Amino acid sequence: MFPTSTSHSAGGQQDEGIIKMKIKAAARESAVALAAAAGAWADQDFRPQDELLEACAAGGLLLVLRAPYRSATLFSEELRAAARLASLPEHLLVPLGAGLWLLRGETDSVEAAKLLGRLPQLCGVRLLLEICGCAVDSASLLSSLRVSPPARHHAPHWGLRYEQHFPASVMALAPWSHVATAPAVSIGLAVHFGPAFVSVAAGTAPAGGFDDLVLLETKPVLFLCRNRPILRHRPQWLLPGVPRPPPPTGQPAPPSPWPAAPTGEAVPSESGTVASAAPRGPAPNPEGAEGLPWWICLWDVRPFTFSASLEPLVASAAVSIATSIHLASHPRASAGQPLHMLDPCCGSGTVLVAGLAQGHRCRGSDLREDFVTRARENLAYMHLSLDGIAQHDALQPFPPGDGPPPDLIVSNPPWGKHIGAEDDGARIIASVVRQFGGSTMCWLANATALATALRIAGVELVYHCRLGGVEAFVLRTRCA
Known about the structure:
Layout: H1 5-38, H2 49-56, E1 61-65, H3 72-85, E2 93-97, E3 100-103, H4 110-118, E4 125-135, H5 138-147, E5 157-164, H6 182-193, E6 210-217, E7 222-227, E8 265-268, E9 274-277, H7 294-299, H8 312-329, E10 340-343, H9 350-357, E11 361-366, H10 369-381, E12 388-391, E13 408-411, H11 424-435, E14 440-445, H12 447-454, E15 459-467, E16 470-477
Parallel strand pairs: 5-6, 10-11, 10-13, 11-12, 13-14
Antiparallel strand pairs: 1-3, 1-4, 2-3, 4-7, 6-7, 8-9, 14-16, 15-16
Helix pairs in contact: 1-12, 3-8, 5-6, 8-9, 11-12
């Protein structure tokens, strides 16, 4: 029997499918190899116990990152990029593993001060703690405090809270916990610090201040630290009694991000007293218990989202990494002028809001007109305005005169997982790179897009890591 034309066609399609699968596999293997060479160390577990104790024996500052399994590497690079921008000597910022870093040496040096001054912009940093003592368990910690007790500050009160840092847990007590003896730790600390213990809720600090102590538990080591709050900026209109600004011109009035209370209902005020309220104001601590920046708390309840929306913390880290890398290689750009940022596949606007929160001048576009409309609604809800947002196909040339050339391009283009075809991201990146030489770009896409980008002449790979099945990579492009 002779084969029919249909069988020929089916065989050709099968061969084409096999070729595509091989190309995908090769791209994934290349991405894995790049990650191993460029940043896999950040995914490592904690250092051995004796190394941790030795590294922290002389004190210093602990930087505790938000460390969900997929994103810990990105948050570590966000911190490292900021340290390089501050010209901090590399040996002074020590990775302890699993999203825990030690800043040692003279923390009041110019370089350390620059890094600490940038921390409010780094959403990946959850806590900044001054080490008072560390040990393998609570009994050893108390013994060390008797030998070398930490100095009390001059505050009349002291407070203590418990934090756990383990990347795979969500604040759940893990089976390796050593804090079964928490009462003994509390009693021992009370003996040393005196009876002026206070249980401090957010926004209710006692008059005269207090020593804010933190017992930080990790798998290998228990730390006693003094909290150094990260003071993140928030708009004045989030404060009680401050009128909300009008919506951007031509936009409908956005809904309030805070639930209203019935007229006359008694609600807590920021001072902790009870007052008769009309509409309810923001919670005493808009950043929340986890120290989240104000915009993330509101963005979670924005009017429009969809399945492929980028996680806000990931978007913020991507913008921050691109910013630090660009400023480090363009010193003149750091003279207080905002950078211009473009997101050519803006979706619901998450990357744009992250850029605006970091002080950039942002504009965006998207292929779908309905996304552009809904992204405008989201930005109006946040009381933020852009340089522009328009419907545009990123595979086509951007209109001339559409604003100054972008310093930064940060985007999560479609690449087939939720939206579009598998090679869409690769084609979009190739088009944008060729149009905007000289920009620093951070992309979140698939391995095919990464492989395509690295084949373009004039492109330098500055950073790359893997977030599950997503490749996060920063490119530096030569001016055309």
